[in-house]
Amino acid sequence: MVAPKRDYNAALLLEDGTLFWGRGFGYPTTKVGEVVFTTGMVGYTESITDPSYRGQILTFTYPLIGNYGVPLYSDVDQNNIPLNFESDQAQVSGVVVSELCRAPSHWRSKKSLDSWLYEEGVPGIEGIDSRELTKKLRVQGVMMGVLAVAEDKIDVEDVRRLLASAKKYGEQDFVSVVSVKEPIIYGEGEHKVVLIDCGVKYGIIRELLKRGLKVIRVPYNTSVSEIMEYNPKGVLVSNGPGDPKICVKTVETVKSLVDEGIPMLGICLGLQIIALSLGGDTYKLKYGHRGQNKPCIDLKTGRNYITSQNHGYAVDPNSIDKSGLDIWMINADDKTVEGVYHEAKPILAVQYHPEASPGPYDTTYIFDMFAQRMEVRSHTT
C-alpha cells in the first residue's frame, strides 16, 4: 500500500459552528460522526477497533498518541484471536489528537498509527487544541461533527452542508452493521455460552474462553428459539454502539430469555438492553464515560473499583423500581448506574467493561460470577 503523505490539510467542524484547523494524517477523506473524547493514556489500537465507537469521531485527551506504534492483526492468542485489537478493523469514523507520533518505538510495532489509519481508510487530525475541544464537549455535550482531510484546499461551505444534512447519531442503527451475520463458534469447552453480538469486543470472548467455555457468537437479531436450540448454560448480551432503544429485536429476545430463567450477563449496551427488556428506561449522557480510570462503587461491599468504560447512554435508576432489578454498583463521580442484578433470577449486568482491553483488570471477577451462576467452575480460580 502507498505510504500516507505528511502534508494533508485537515478541518474539524462541530454542529455548533466551531471550526478547528489542523494537520491531516491517516486517509484523506471526509467523515461525519458524533465527536466524543476518551481520557485513556494508552490502548489506542484497542479503542479504535472497539465496535462501540462505530459512528464516532474519537478524540484522545492524552497529548501524545502513537508512540508505541501498531502491531499486526496476525499477532494472535491460542484461540486465534488478535491480541491487540478488539475487532478485525478500525471502527471509528475519525481520530483527533493533539500530537501524533510518527516514529514509534516498540518491539511489536510494525507500522505507525498514521500508516495503519491510512490502510483502514480512517482520517485523522492533529495539531488542534484537544483541551479546548474536550472542555467544549464537557460543557455543551457531545455533538455531531465532520472531519475533512485532503491534499487540496478544504471547502468549508461543502463541509457545513454535509453536516447540516447528516443524520443524528442516536437515530442510526449501528448494531446491525457491527454484529456478525452468521454464528461463529470459539473454543471446545463442555459448557456452551451464547453471546448475543451487538458489537462485542474480542476481550470479552477471550475472558469466556479462559473459563473453559464454548462461545457461540450469534447475530444481534437471533430469536430466542434459535438461541435455546444450542442448549446454552448461559447467555451474554454484549457491548455495542448507539441508542439501546433502537435494538428492538434484541430487547424482545432478551425479555423471552428472562422468562426462560437462563443465567445472563450484560455488558455495557447489554446492561441497557436487559433493563429495557424488564420495563426500565435509558437516557443519553451529556458527554458519556470513556476512559480507563472510571471509579465504580459496589453498594453491597462498599469497595471501589477502577474500570474501563465506553458508553454514551445509561439506565434511569428510577425506572427499574418494579423491574426486579436492584442497583448493584454506581459511578463514584456522577452516581449513574454501573451494575444491576436481579432479585430472583440469575441475571447480572455491568455498565463498564470488566474485560478491560484496554484498562485495568480489577473487575474480571465478573466473569467468574457469571460462571458460578451457570454452575460452571471457573478455570481461572
Description:
This protein is α/β, with parallel strands linked by helices. The chain has two domains: 8-171, Carbamoyl-phosphate synthase small subunit, N-terminal domain (Glucose Oxidase, domain 1, 3-Layer(bba) Sandwich); 175-373, Class I glutamine amidotransferase (GATase) domain (Rossmann fold, 3-Layer(aba) Sandwich), CATH 3.40.50.880. It is built from ten helices and 19 strands. Strands 10-12-11-13-14-19-18-17-15-16 form a ten-stranded mixed beta sheet, with helices on both faces. The longest helix has 13 residues, at 248-260.
Task: Could you tell me the CATH topology label of the largest domain.
Answer: Rossmann fold
Shape: globular
CATH-level-2 architecture of the largest domain: 3-Layer(aba) Sandwich
**From the alpha-carbon coordinates, what is the Rg to the nearest angstrom?**
20 Å
CATH class of the largest domain, named: Alpha Beta
Order of helices and strands: EEEHEEEEHEHEHHEEHEHEHEHEEEEEH
- Number of helical elements: 10
Mean pLDDT: 96
- Give the beta-strand count: 19
**How many strands, what sense, and barrel or not for the largest sheet?**
10 strands, mixed
Structural category is: alpha/beta
Assigned CATH superfamily of the largest domain: Class I glutamine amidotransferase (GATase) domain
Strand proportion, as a percent range, falls in 25-35%
- What strand order characterises the main sheet? 10-12-11-13-14-19-18-17-15-16
Which stretches are low in confidence, meaning pLDDT under 50 for 5 or more residues running?
A: none
Distance between the termini: 46 Å
Helix content: 10-25%
User: How many distinct folded domains?
Assistant: 2
